[in-house]
Specification:
With 302 residues, the chain is α+β, with helices and mostly antiparallel strands. It is 44% helix and 17% strand. The protein is built from 12 helices and 10 strands. Strand 5 and strand 6 form a beta hairpin. The longest helix has 20 residues.
Length: 302
């Protein structure tokens, strides 16, 4: 069964808050909007075509559009809230978190466009009272007749997502890639390790640390980010270099060294290819006030 957004989301708003009834018959469905399933108390089963897991109080699962799933909530103490968000609104709020192009942000940017591989992200916030309060306050606002309800709700949802990532990015549960051995979360751990150690990390190091062959790693990284290992690391280096050029007075030589480029000429060449400016011109343009920033998201490297 496919659910259209106009069934639940009022035309004057970009989201809706819908309480999930206890003992509702389990039925498979999909929808064209994003859904945040929030467990306020008790437990439920969230079931997908390729996966199934139990959710408990404090858990929040973001479902991508087109995801086929069903929810089983058969207990007296379970309280579930569905936050339904228009696709365009979610993308604006969600991607505003990803202003800097890095290995992990690229993964999250592309995740929801690969529904087969990435139908959900699960946050286990447990007893985080701030997040619970944000959810309940937003629901109260949704049920009100206040002026400016639409922009306020959008702002509240943006804050909710920021708090979720701020506090729980390191423990996000993601579906296992089909090339994976079934260990949830390995893909995020691998990408995070690459991001944190981009200056020196090697495929051999990743292989030994995460117990995958190099071939498996290449496939996992490509499926998660759309880039090869080499290009993902190079993108990360260039992003960090651009940040240093914007925020420090380091020479181009030192910027190259601090971001892991062994030859400054090679750094200049790669930087110019991605930003259409030399490193020196990039910095000069910012300081001349010709714009808040030249293009700060490197494209796919080849």
């Amino acid at each position: 069964m496919e659910i259209n957004e106009h069934v639940f989301i009022p035309p004057e708003l970009d989201c809706a808050f819908v309480k999930h009834s206890r003992y509702m018959p389990v039925f498979w469905h999909t929808h064209e909007f994003f859904e945040m399933l929030c467990v306020l108390s008790g437990e439920c089963d969230n079931i997908f075509e390729q996966d199934r897991f139990q959710m408990k109080a404090g858990d929040i699962c973001i479902h991508a559009p087109g995801t086929v799933h069903c929810v089983r909530a058969f207990s007296e103490d379970v309280i579930l809230l569905n936050i339904l968000i228009r696709k365009s609104t979610f993308e604006r709020a969600f991607f505003s978190l990803m202003e800097e192009e890095c290995i992990l942000s690229r993964f999250f940017r592309t995740a929801f466009y690969k529904t087969v591989e990435m139908p959900y992200l699960l946050f286990r916030t447990e007893k985080d009272l701030q997040i619970r309060s944000l959810i309940l306050d937003a629901m109260t606002e949704f049920e009100s007749d206040n002026k400016y309800k639409r922009p306020l709700l959008n702002a509240m949802l943006s804050e909710l997502m920021i708090r979720m990532f701020q506090g729980y990015e390191e423990s996000i549960v993601v579906p296992s890639p089909r090339v994976n051995s079934g260990r949830h979360g390995d893909v995020v751990k691998i990408l995070r390790y690459m991001q944190e150690n981009y200056r020196t990390v090697t495929m051999s190091e990743l292989s030994e640390r995460f117990n995958y062959s190099k071939r498996q790693l290449q496939r996992i990284i490509f499926e998660a980010s759309g880039l090869s290992f080499r290009d993902a690391i190079q993108t990360q280096k260039l992003t960090r270099a651009a940040e240093l050029l914007r925020t420090t007075d380091l020479t181009v030589q030192l910027v190259a060294e601090q971001t892991g480029f062994q030859a400054v000429n090679n750094f200049r060449k790669l930087f110019s290819r991605q930003y259409q400016l030399t490193p020196a011109a990039y910095r000069e343009k910012l300081r001349a006030g010709e714009g808040s920033s030249p293009e700060t998201h490197p494209s796919v490297l080849h």
